[in-house]
Amino acid sequence: MTEHELGHVESVPVGSLFHNRTDVKAAGLHRHLVNGIDGDERVTRSLVAAGVYSGDKDHGVTLWYAGQGGLDRDTGRQIEHQRFEGPNAGLAASSASGMVIRLIRGWGPKKGAKVYRYDGLYRVSRYWLDQTGHYDVCMYQLEAVESDVGYAFEPDLDEDGHPSPANPEKLNELTRLTYSHASQTTRQRFAVLEKAAWRCEACSALQNISAGKLLRAVMLGTGGAPSVLCTTCYNDRLRSRLL
After folding, report:
1. CA within 20 to 30 Å of 221's CA: 61, 66, 159, 162, which one?
2. What is the model's pTM?
3. C-alpha angle with apex 90: 195 to 30, nearest 5 degrees?
């Protein structure tokens, strides 16, 4: 990955609309037709946010984004653990490096035709491990960079909380983007991490992907409030059968 591949793409203005992922790729914004993360274990160049994962939540200037992997494409359910490896690791590493990431939002139903819009540059501010059912999911919080805030529109959903199909005849009128709701459990775990100032309650370590210190909010036993533990302390508790 070279330096010129990061940041804006020349001749593609923020707010540009595309009918499909093939057009997005042809414009040089994102190299993959399926994967949402374009990058490697070191850095991320672009993301496609289309509300595929249940933990995703979009507030325009702030975005919660679930990492890739472990999803059954037919049912939309998580069937395997995600790990901070490969592109997921690179997205977490972008938090420390401060690298800007191109964001392309997908508008339309979870299954079926979508339209896409280039919404400018974002940075990863935080990342953590969450759970969907019995499976670990890598979660990230992204923030729009100041120069592109005007293009990060507040998403809109229909009265049932579902995205409406895109109408190709009204692409030029598209000013809002639909997106999936983050689960209540995800929001609660995030609040616990915030309250703990993103430190492990057992060893006081801050999050550090290179050292394997990845935070998660976990329940200790059947009652009480969740606790924040890093991966090392969490595994120690598992081995000692205290969870």
Report:
1. 66
2. 0.72
3. 115
**Element (DSSP H or E) covering residue 97:** helix 86-97
- Cα 109 to chain centroid, rounded: 18
195 is written with which tokens? 């309250």
Task: For the chain, 243 residues long, give each residue's pLDDT as a single digit of tens.
Answer: 444 478 888 888 887 888 889 999 999 999 999 899 999 988 899 999 877 666 677 777 888 898 988 888 777 788 899 999 999 999 998 887 788 999 998 876 656 667 888 888 999 999 998 877 788 889 999 988 876 665 555 444 455 544 444 444 444 444 444 444 455 666 777 788 888 888 899 999 887 766 667 788 877 666 667 888 888 888 888 777 654
User: Rounded to whole angstroms, how far apart are CA atoms 221 and 170?
Assistant: 52
Structure tokens at 51: 């509300």
CB 222: neighbour CB atoms within 10 A?
A: 5
Element (H, E) at 187: helix 184-195
